[in-house]
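Usage

Read records sequentially. Each one opens with the input sequence:
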Amino acid sequence: MTAHVLCAEPTHSVWDRSLPPRLHVEPGDEVEFECVDSSGSQVQPGMTAGEFLAIDRTRIHALTGPVWVDGAEPGDVLQIDVLATRHRGWGWSSVIEGLGFLKARFHEPYLFHWQLDGDSTISLAPAVVPVRPFLGVMGVARGEDGTFRTRPPGSFGGNLDVRELCAGSRLYLPVFNPGALFSCGDGHAAQGDGEVCINGIECPLDVKLRFNLHKQQSLAGPLVEASEAIAPDSAADAWVVVESGTDVAEAARGATSRMVDLLTSRWGFTEVHAYILCSVALKLRLSQVVNEPVYTISAALSKQILPKRELFPAS
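and closes with the structure output:
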């Protein structure tokens, strides 16, 4: 096993199998990736919302790589073990007009800065948000020629935003090109299921990964082997908003919006802060499909994040 270090620059913000590899590794090797934040180092602590609106959005995701894995061929499976993650003490989240899950409710541009204190942050007091870093983007080069933006994920991986991909977890990806051509970035210090305002806690992240190959194995798309051993999830005790309807997306929007209302009415958050808290900590889940055409969505927020409240005290 050989250990490597790959600095972030020059980053890339597209999938393109013609990009030359920046590093060659053998199966079993470990690589420490330096990943800038998803803006490509354009966002800095103290930046204003007006300055944020002027950044170059063609640089979004700013991936580190590609890495050539010797022996990887189309039809193989690339195994990526997430060994360790390290944030750099700060991050950001935003609201952008026309984007996000509740774009019909939230129109005003907003930029929120986080200070990350080890395993948690109190930047959005009275909430105490657990820090559980992971990479939002891990993927191999797509199987077709051309240049493709990084926002849509696919069978190659990419912008998955799966919060379970923290340290201790493992990702399997099908290989479409010789060398696999792996890239990664879009570090999140924390993220809720849904990433509803369009961001988690976006942050620079240093990540140690180990690569292995499984020759000529069938895999249709990304597969995650999650572990809580290194980065435990928040406590199971939770406030859960439940919404049902025939349109899954509308039911999910309704549950998210009602959680925003609950946070503002019972815990005193501003609406935009409640929205951002949902984006970094809410677990938005499909609870049942068996009663189709009516589906049920649950939106859960761990009780450990919020001050204790009796919502309906006895009179």
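Summary fields computed downstream for this record:
- The CA atoms of residues 81 and 156 lie 16 Å apart.
- The mean pLDDT is 96.
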